[in-house]
Amino acid sequence: MGTLFLAVTAAPWYLFTFGIDPFLIGLFFFMLAACGFSITLGYHRLFSHLTFQAHWLVRLLTVVFGAGAFENSVLLWACEHRSHHKHVDHDDDPYCISKGLFYAHMGWLMFKLKPEPQFENVADLKKDPLVVWQDRYIHLLAVLVAFVFPAALGYAWGGWKEALGAFLIAGVLRVVVLQHATFCINSLCHYIGSQPYSSKCSARDSWLLAIITLGEGYHNYHHEFQHDYRNGVKPWQIDPTKWLIWVLSKVGLVKKLRRVPAEKILLAELAEAQRRLEQTLARPGLTETASAYLANAYHRLMGIAQQWTERKAQQLEVTREMLTELRREIRAATSILRLSGVRFA
Ligand SMILES: [Zn+2]
Ligand SMILES: [Zn+2]
Hints:
Strand content: under 5%
Largest sheet: 2 strands, antiparallel
Strand order of the largest sheet: 1-2
Number of domains: 2
Distance between the termini: 45 Å
Helix content: 55-70%
Radius of gyration: 23 Å
Bound molecules: zinc ion
Order of helices and strands: HHHEHHHHHHHHHEHHH
């Protein structure tokens, strides 16, 4: 709340009085990227979900700059996040969307009534000396990285005026921007967007939120396949965190990237498309033409699902052509569904 207060009072005052220069703009974006990727790549995909293995340098940088995001330690973050996945939309979900958009966004942090968790679900991280060290010194580290570091760079660049600017813009304002981007994953990513992989929980996919959250906006996929290092799994989806992990793997700084096989992903999409077709067909007031279209799409999907089950039973190899066909059928079914939502509803 202190940083939020300063971000809406002192930061605009500084900008109004002294203006902005390229150094401050550069430092703001550098800190935003360094701390942002430390959360998405480090706290989330590496430490919480173990979706790949990383060189000590990547681990060190992400715990140091992650502290500067002011989102507490890896240990507490991962503990709460793993609970979120396990109990999503239920009472034990720390940022449960069923308690409202504001609660999921920041209310859960403002009115923390429950005692500190027991850290039972992070036994692996409790054995990691780097994580334990970060947890012990988290508050000191957070202040040093978030505020002292940019202010010192500012001082070296242009004296006290620049130090104050760096503290307010690349420190305080950047903390607030990054915190709210992260909070959006817990709130808006469970509120707006599509559910192509599963509608079992509230998580949704949104390209717009993916831009704000460095790729975490493909949250429906992430909740369905949390051990995949990718969130935006399709080639055209915007997932800068996935791109960075991939680049790091090419230079040998990360390895053993975990991917869900394309076939498994498509079968999840197939099941979800079938379920939605069924639901739409059961809707009252559908025209005869709409029903016929939907029923046709539904039977085609049933047919292809049947084929896949048989092939699986016979342990036959999945060919590229089969995957293409499956992809085509799902695309046809979802476009019919989209059309039925607009024209036949
Ligand atoms: Zn979620
Ligand atoms: Zn997650």
